[in-house]
């Protein structure tokens, strides 16, 4: 693990400890070794993650807004007397590289309007769609672009979708 | 003022939990129910956390509240995915209109 990554992870775990102990000063007697052990364990368990700070900053408001919309949308459908849903399955062809970005996207998709990731395939993400008449494909590709920016990776060229 | 805002956020959050539960009962199959429970509860908890943030007395408590919300987001999205994947692999067909 490089020096800066070590520093960054130490900072993150120290922050977590500070939050969990609500800033109790004498807890650091235990906390300092625990943080160090956590950093070392993370070096072993968690490979280096590339991410872009500006991508993260731009992702947060996007996610908050779209997930709020998702909640409003599904609440409206659930409470509507006619239950306006027309569900179905859809295979979305990955443009993201394999690994963490795909897992991250699959989890994000489940919290965004009308989509639920059901299977992480090698070439496709199988998505359950709550309303097939909606424009969920452009939503998915927008999410994918945001996730790509967050991780600082580039998207493969989209092959013909249908 | 902040008490009033907290009260509104808590009630709004409860409203989303209610809608999510209604969806859980009314939606026709496992997949659509997962939609209701993950998305509505995410917003419900988010609003409750936002309301409590206004009353928090220290930054450590605010951090803890946000951390709780993030962990629940991660858990609910991952579990929803696992339930949906298992259902698909068991051959449960999605309900069609």
Kindly summarize this structure in a few lines.
The complex is a heterodimer of chains A (162) and B (97). Chain A has 162 residues and is mostly helical. In chain A, 56% of the residues lie in helices and 11% in strands.
Fold topology:
The complex is a heterodimer of chains A (162) and B (97).
Chain A: H1 3-20, H2 28-45, H3 53-79, E1 88-93, H4 100-111, E2 115-120, E3 124-129, H5 136-151
Antiparallel strand pairs in A: 1-3, 2-3
Chain B: H1 2-26, H2 30-53, H3 59-89
Helix pairs in contact in B: 1-2, 2-3
Structure, explained:
The complex is a heterodimer of chains A (162) and B (97). Chain A is mainly α and 162 residues long. In chain A, 56% of the residues lie in helices and 11% in strands. Chain A folds into two domains: 3-45; 53-151, no CATH class. Chain A has five helices and three strands, in the order αααβαββα. Chain A has a three-stranded antiparallel β-sheet. In chain A, strand 2 (115-120) and strand 3 form a beta hairpin. In chain A, helix 1 (3-20) crosses helix 2 (28-45) and helix 3 runs antiparallel to helix 5 (136-151). The longest helix of chain B has 31 residues, at 59-89. In chain B, helix 1 (2-26) packs antiparallel against helix 2 (30-53) and helix 2 packs antiparallel against helix 3. The model of chain B has no long low-confidence stretch (mean pLDDT 95). The chains are: A mainly alpha (162), B mainly alpha (97). The interface between A and B is large, with 41 and 43 residues.
């Amino acid at each position: 693990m490089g020096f800066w990554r070590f520093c960054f992870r130490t900072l993150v775990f120290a922050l977590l400890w500070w939050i969990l102990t609500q800033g109790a000063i004498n807890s650091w007697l235990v906390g300092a070794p625990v943080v160090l052990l956590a950093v070392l364990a993370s070096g072993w368990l968690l490979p280096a993650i590339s991410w872009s700070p500006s991508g993260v900053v731009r992702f947060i408001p996007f996610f908050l807004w779209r997930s709020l919309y998702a909640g409003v949308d599904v609440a409206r459908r659930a409470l509507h007397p006619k239950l306006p849903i027309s569900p179905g399955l859809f295979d979305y062809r990955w443009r993201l590289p394999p690994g963490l970005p795909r897992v991250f996207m699959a989890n994000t998709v489940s919290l965004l309007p009308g989509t639920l990731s059901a299977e992480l395939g090698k070439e496709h993400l199988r998505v359950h769609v709550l309303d097939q008449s909606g424009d969920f494909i452009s939503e998915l590709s927008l999410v994918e672009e945001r996730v790509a920016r967050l991780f600082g990776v580039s998207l493969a060229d989209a092959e013909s979708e249908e | 003022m902040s008490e009033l805002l907290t009260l509104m956020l808590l009630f709004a959050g409860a409203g989303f939990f209610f809608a999510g539960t209604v969806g859980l009962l009314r939606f026709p199959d496992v997949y659509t129910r997962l939609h209701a429970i993950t998305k509505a509860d995410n917003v419900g908890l988010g609003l409750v956390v936002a309301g409590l943030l206004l009353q928090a007395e220290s930054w450590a408590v605010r951090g803890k509240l946000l951390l709780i919300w993030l962990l629940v987001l991660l858990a609910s999205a991952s579990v929803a995915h696992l339930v949906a994947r298992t259902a698909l692999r068991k051959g449960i067909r999605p309900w069609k209109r």
